[in-house]
Design brief:
alpha+beta, Alpha-Beta Plaits, 2 domains
C-alpha cells in the first residue's frame, strides 16, 4: 500500500471517528445544555411569579387594613354607582372619564348636600346625552354646573372637548348645624 492511500484511509477513518463522536457524545450534550437553559429560565419565571404572588398577598393585607381603619360610608356606594353609570354610558357613547374628584359635603337646614365633580372627554352630543341620562333617568341628583372646554393636544395637533360636571345630591339628615 502506498503512503498516499494510507493517508487517505487514515483521514477517512479520522473523519468518521469525529462523526461518530459527534453523534454519540457531543450532540446529546448540546441537547442537554439547551434543555438545562430552558429549565433554568422556567425556574427564574417561577421564582418571579412567587415573588409577585407574595407582593400581591402583602398588598391585599394592606388594603384590608386600610378598609378596617377607614370604614366605607353609605355615600361611597352612591359614588361608586355614579362612577359605574358614567363608565358604562361612556363605553356606549365613546366618552372617557378624565378625572373624578372626591365629593364635597355640606349640611344646610337638616339637609346634606353632596357635590360630585368629574370631567369627561368626548363629543358634545354624547356629553349632553350623559347629562340627560344622569339627571332624568338615573336620579343621582341635579347637574347644577357644566363647563365645556375645547383643548388641544399639541403632540398630535388635534382638538378635543372636555366637560366639567358638578352633580349635587341632596339627602335629609338628622345632623344640624348651629
Amino acid at each position: 500500500m502506498s503512503d498516499s492511500k494510507k493517508n487517505k484511509i487514515l483521514l477517512l477513518s479520522f473523519l468518521s471517528s469525529l462523526w461518530v463522536c459527534y453523534i454519540l457524545a457531543i450532540s446529546p450534550t448540546l441537547a442537554l445544555k439547551k434543555e438545562a437553559k430552558f429549565l433554568e429560565k422556567k425556574h427564574l419565571q417561577n421564582q418571579e411569579t412567587l415573588l409577585e404572588l407574595n407582593r400581591l398577598i402583602l398588598q391585599k393585607k394592606q388594603y384590608e387594613q386600610i378598609l378596617k381603619t377607614y370604614p366605607v360610608y353609605k355615600t361611597s356606594s352612591l359614588q361608586n354607582n355614579l362612577l359605574e353609570t358614567i363608565h358604562t354610558f361612556g363605553k356606549k357613547q365613546q366618552l372617557k372619564i378624565v378625572s373624578f374628584h372626591q365629593p364635597h359635603s355640606a349640611v344646610f337646614k337638616n339637609t346634606l348636600f353632596t357635590t360630585y365633580s368629574f370631567e369627561v372627554k368626548g363629543s358634545y352630543q354624547s356629553m349632553v346625552k350623559l347629562i340627560q341620562h344622569l339627571e332624568e333617568k338615573r336620579l343621582f341628583g341635579t347637574v347644577f354646573s357644566c363647563r365645556f372646554e375645547k383643548k388641544k393636544n399639541y403632540r398630535t395637533n388635534k382638538s378635543f372637548l372636555v366637560c366639567t360636571l358638578f352633580l349635587q345630591h341632596a339627602e335629609q339628615t338628622e345632623i344640624s348645624m348651629p
